[in-house]
Amino acid sequence: MSENPKITKEMVLEKLKEVIDPEIGIDVVNLGLIYELKVNPDNTVYVKMTMTTPGCPLTMWLLQAVEQKILEIPGVKDAEIELTFDPPWTPDRISEEVKKKLGII
């Protein structure tokens, strides 16, 4: 019987860096859209995330893209994506690396 690889938060975050917000051109992790991430013992993954604005026209696309990327990780059984706007996203959540690229800092 083969062992399933241990799924880590780091693995999931690396995979989610492949999900790019088409309007901004930055991935959901570095944008700070991922609020919470849990890898459960049964190899399911829970993500609580937000959008840059409540009326974001790409909300459904981004949620599906995040779920799809998580499900591509070997051993992941299921993904639950919860959308929240509490607290509201602000540009303060963008990673330092991306702020430098954008000239914010």
TrEMBL record:
<dbReference type="InterPro" id="IPR002744">
    <property type="entry name" value="MIP18-like"/>
</dbReference>
<protein>
    <submittedName>
        <fullName>Metal-sulfur cluster assembly factor</fullName>
    </submittedName>
</protein>
<dbReference type="Pfam" id="PF01883">
    <property type="entry name" value="FeS_assembly_P"/>
</dbReference>
<dbReference type="InterPro" id="IPR052339">
    <property type="entry name" value="Fe-S_Maturation_MIP18"/>
</dbReference>
<dbReference type="InterPro" id="IPR034904">
    <property type="entry name" value="FSCA_dom_sf"/>
</dbReference>
<feature type="domain" description="MIP18 family-like">
    <location>
        <begin position="9"/>
        <end position="82"/>
    </location>
</feature>
